[in-house]
Amino acid sequence: MIPYVRDIKFEYGVVDQVSPLIRRVVANNPSPFTYLGTGTYIVGKGEVAVIDPGPDLPEHLQAILDAISGETVTHILVTHHHSDHSPLARALKEKTGATIYGCAVKAPVVDDAVRLEAGYDQFTPDVSVCGGGASFSGPGWTLEAIATPGHTSNHICYALKEENALFSGDHIMGWSTTVVTPPDGNMGAYLASLDLVKARNFTTLWPTHGPPITDVAPFITEYKAHRLDRERQILAQLAAGESKIREMVPKMYVGVDARLYPAASHSVLAHVIELVKSGRVKTTGAPGIESEYRLA
User: Does 1.10.10.10 match the CATH number of domain 224-295?
Assistant: First the structure.
């Protein structure tokens, strides 16, 4: 069972020193997808990097500017293109002159009825770090871009060398599992990215939403086990005679907020796509939400 961590103390718009090198300001955009809001991270002192500036909220921009008053922003780092993470990057650049780093992706077409509440941003960085491996530095801090596709095709995490920490964006979150929504999301890529992060043996994960994860290896182990259990649940649903994803979801996500069912349906689809690829499940035509499935 995933050992969720959900307790976090903060005030909206107030900057908190959460580690020797890290400050955090939380945006006032709580939702079923963002938990209590987007946590924007400031790394370093004097010359700083800002990670995930967040949603296009003027008051959040002002809170960031207040937090870095008298300092120079040298890097703006974005984990991915959802509208609770990247939109404020341009406004922050206009105020600070900093360079925006991240990975661009064309926003996928998603049925409005099942569009994630977070939405998509037409994000384009100044400098692309799509493949990972790029490094950034300032006085006393060094960050590395790590490509972690899965939640989205362009998801990037950022490792802070001096604290053996990872800014994990939406790739790994302490308060909830991550939504993987095809066609931009890919479950096979997601599971591989979990293995990649686990192999790095980070001491702390700092998700964009919620508190840090400090017992990292066991958490990732259970995070992945949860995904594999979802696969088993899908196979059990098919064995019991269910053939459509929308009929499986309420039985698989008992106790989950029904507002999350559309997103859950797409996570199930992401699993089913992998099951079809592996030959364990069959369907007619391309896998989709409305397709009918059966055991191979």
Answer: yes
